[in-house]
Structures are given as C-alpha cells and as structure tokens.
Amino acid sequence: MISIFVTIQIIPEFIERFREASLGDAQGSVKDEPGCYRFDILQANADPNRFHLYEVYSNEEALEEHRNAPHYLKWRDTVQDWFDGEPQRIAMTTIFPSDDGWQNQKPHLLDW
Length: 112
Known about the structure:
Blueprint: E1 2-9, H1 15-32, E2 36-43, E3 50-57, H2 60-68, H3 70-79, E4 88-93, H4 99-109
Antiparallel strand pairs: 1-3, 1-4, 2-3
Helix pairs in contact: 1-3
C-alpha cells in the first residue's frame, strides 16, 4: 500500500467551505474507489487554517484513478482558489497495518 500526506493552508474566510467540500471528496473516495483504503481530513489545532489529508491507496494506479474520479475533480475545481500557497505532499509506503489489515478495515470505512 502507498499513502500520501498533504498539507494545505486555506485562506481564513474559506475554512468552512473547504471542510464541506473536502468531506464530499473523502466520502466519495472511500465509498466509490475500491483502491482507496483511508482518507482522513485533519485540521491543525495550532493553526485552524492548516489542513492535513492522509490517504492510503493500494498502488499508484489507484491513486491515479482517484485523481480522475468525479468527486476529486469537483473538489479540486471548487477549492483550488482557496489555497494560501501551494499544497505540500509527502509520498510514503505503509508499514503497518499490513496490506491485509488495510483490506480488512475497508468495510468499516463505509459505516458513517
């Protein structure tokens, strides 16, 4: 499995709208993308304008499918003008949980 950790600084007046738009992308990702195993949205306590996205995918192809998914394209088009600077992205390989562990957790992501 691979993961990405994205840090995005948001212009203050767009925080609530960013949260709402991001929730739609996250829900669509885990619900509609078989290769997406996690999509967390985090807001920094020390700086409420800073958000972090933690995402886990089965492989690079699944990540590329995400980038072409309708919910992602809608999210990107909606939020890109709300960024205060360029998002920072760190690509990683997951160690724990194991690939089987991620696959076993997937059904629980759909129970909101």
